[in-house]
Write a structure and sequence with these properties.
Length: 470
């Protein structure tokens, strides 16, 4: 049963993490305020105290909204960073809105961006470091949990080997319980402590904190009385569903009408409203800035050259498959001579349809720049799976498993597949399969910072040029 000491451990962990967060927020804000205000005759201490109250209240609201997951036994670095991203961005919005309403602009735009960026970096480093320290403490026996597993079959053995035996999670394994014949065990028989009827007595005598039910389908009903007993005695009860017989991959669990569990075949971070808002806001801001600053210059330079080197329009418009399979008109600077195969045949190496300026634009990605218009109107995102021609969508959807999954997200000007080597002509089916695999991985593992990473990789490739771009 959960002891008072264990409850205190959880509270202490949350308190330490929150204290570290607030410490970094205040240090960074104070340091940047000093550097910024010194340019204008020094700091007004009364105003500074007032600003600190707003900063701390704003972060407290964000922290309360998103919580702290470091008290959980199993949590990975990418989950920590994803939570910090949401917490810091929500904090930035609340604080900036508060200062705006109160007509008190603490920093310039650049300084505010620096403050938020540094807050994200230092809080992320702090939390990951704390997680490492906590793992080390647990591996030495501190903050441990007594745990048992219901079942002694394949699923129970997998749970035991992947999680329970890993000392950094802080589990003290006390035994398996199963009604089956010992000859059917898939675990070490010496670790089986009894039948399911022995569980309640064992829980009391050994102060069990958590029970994992890993019984095979059909036997799980036997666990219902134990589950009721656990809940009435403040023992955590968790269920490992035995669907791995036909699904051998990570899945996502949600609820229909808050009561019926639904297992989704994949986690999709962009189905969360907060993530969609962040991604769409970034798309709008960046595309708008690009279209009113850099794009006009590109157009003035490239448009006359495109017109001079071959007859036809400046822009090339092509139907492509977008989010949820909806068709849209994808815009590009025209890189080929006008030809009847443009919507049917991919560009190949030494393709005589490609104009000299077109070859340069393809190699440097400049031909894709008009797609920022597609981004602004909502047909595309800056980062996402590249949109394919309608003919290719129809063809590859019949040849490649999960091909259509890539359309669960908005197509992008650039994408994870493109920066990991899957760009340009696909001569072999395996090349398209690799591209699809990378696109699906992106959809399942999206974070805001993954988008930033892809953008920087794309810029790097634009500067040095890409061999597969022709």
């Amino acid at each position: 049963m959960r002891t008072k000491k264990q409850q205190q451990h959880t509270s202490i962990i949350k308190m330490l993490v929150a204290t570290g967060d607030f410490l970094w927020i205040n240090i960074l804000f104070s340091a940047l305020t000093y550097l910024y205000r010194e340019q204008f005759g020094g700091i007004d201490l009364e105003q500074f105290k007032y600003d600190l109250v707003i900063i701390n209240m704003s972060y407290a609201i964000s922290l309360f909204n998103f919580g702290i997951i470091l008290d959980k036994r199993i949590v990975f670095s990418e989950k920590i960073i994803a939570l910090v991203t949401r917490t810091v961005m929500f904090f930035a919005v609340i604080a900036l809105a508060s200062f705006t309403v109160l007509n008190n602009y603490v920093f310039s735009t650049v300084n505010w961006f620096v403050f938020i960026s540094l807050s994200f970096v230092f809080i992320s480093i702090w939390r990951i470091t704390f997680r490492y320290i906590l793992k080390s403490y647990r591996s030495k026996g501190g903050n441990s949990r007594n745990i048992i597993i219901l079942g002694a079959g394949r699923v129970a053995n997998q749970v035991y080997n992947t999680n329970i035996t890993n000392l950094v999670y802080g589990y003290k394994f006390m035994g398996f319980f199963d009604d089956r014949d010992p000859s059917d065990y898939k675990v070490n028989p010496e670790l089986v402590k009894g039948n399911l009827s022995d569980v309640e007595k064992f829980v009391i005598e050994n102060q069990i904190d958590e029970i994992i039910c890993a019984l095979p389908a059909g036997d799980d009903r036997k666990a219902v009385p134990i589950m009721k007993y656990a809940e009435n005695n403040l023992v955590r009860f968790m269920i490992v569903p035995d669907f791995m017989r036909f699904i051998n991959r990570s899945v996502s669990l949600s609820f229909l009408d808050n009561s019926i569990p639904i297992v989704s075949l994949r986690e999709e971070p962009l189905r969360r409203t907060s993530n969609l808002v962040i991604k769409r806001a970034f798309d709008i801001i960046v595309s708008l800035l690009f279209l009113v600053t850099i794009f006009p210059i590109l157009f003035i330079i490239l448009a006359p050259i495109i017109k001079h080197t071959s007859k036809g329009p400046i822009f090339f418009k092509q139907k492509r498959t977008g989010e949820n399979g909806i068709e849209f008109n994808c815009l590009k600077f025209r890189t080929m001579k006008v030809n009847k195969d443009a919507d049917e045949v991919q560009a190949t190496k030494h393709d005589d349809r490609v104009t000299p300026i077109g070859a340069f634009m393809r190699k440097t990605n400049l031909d894709e720049m008009p797609q920022f218009l597609n981004v602004l109107i909502g047909d595309m995102s800056i980062v996402g799976p590249r949109p394919h021609m309608l003919k290719h969508t129809k063809m590859y959807s019949q040849l490649i498993d999960k091909y259509m999954v890539r359309h669960f997200a908005k197509p992008g000007i650039t994408g994870w597949a493109q920066v990991t080597g899957y760009r340009g002509e696909t001569k072999e089916l395996s090349e398209m399969e690799g591209r699809v695999k990378q696109d699906v991985w992106y959809i399942e593992n999206w974070t805001f910072w993954l988008d930033i990473k892809i953008i920087f990789k794309t810029l790097k490739n634009m500067i040095k040029g890409e061999d597969n771009a022709y």
